[in-house]
Amino acid sequence: MTAILTANRINKKYNPISATLELATCSLTLERGKTYIIKGKSGSGKTTLLNILGGMDKPSSGTVFYEGKSFYELSDQEQSRIRNEEFGFVFQSYNLIPELTAYENIKLPVFFNPRKKVKSNAIFDVAAEMGIGALLQRKTYQLSGGEQQRVAIARALMMSPAIIFADEPTGSLDTATSRMIADLLVRTVRRRGTTLVIVTHEEHLIDADHIEITIDSGKVSASEDTHVLFGI
Length: 232
Hints:
The chain is α/β, with parallel strands linked by helices. The chain contains six helices and eleven strands. The protein has a single domain (3-230), classed as P-loop containing nucleotide triphosphate hydrolases (Rossmann fold), CATH 3.40.50.300. It is globular, with a radius of gyration of 17 Å. Keywords: ATP-binding, Nucleotide-binding, Transport.
């Protein structure tokens, strides 16, 4: 496996004056095609870490390298391009537009990235992967929570991103649906060779092989052989 994203001595401060840490200094490497689970209680700093890795929140100090380039030193335009084309995002609240159909929601990344060529049948293909091919003409408010999250995952996959960042993707679902959606997400990205980073507070969400990163009050620890260094 090869590294796709590396964070070098990153941290995040609540208050730069008092230097109170939201995320303690840590370094980690994400490898292509692997699944990572960031676990911790509410407010522990796990979403902060995800946002820094996903290019949405600049660290107070340290550097994030994506494909060997210092992400936060790139132009705003290039950062935006990477987030839109090479990163995919899945959220707890789905972030779908209720007035649009499932088809139109999935197609949104294509609308915002007209330069990138996408196969004409790509929407139908990704919908089939998610098992929602028969639901494409329904408005999202007509769908169940599990169906809406499948639409959100399909949308995140539309541009064939290198990394999927999922922030509590099953947090609004019941236990049985959570496991089903998590398993579907893991199987799909593994088949595509995509790196997956999931934030969750749920125990035993995924049975498949994964690397576990735990955050407790901003301090990062990890399972063995994860290329994670903390407190450095």
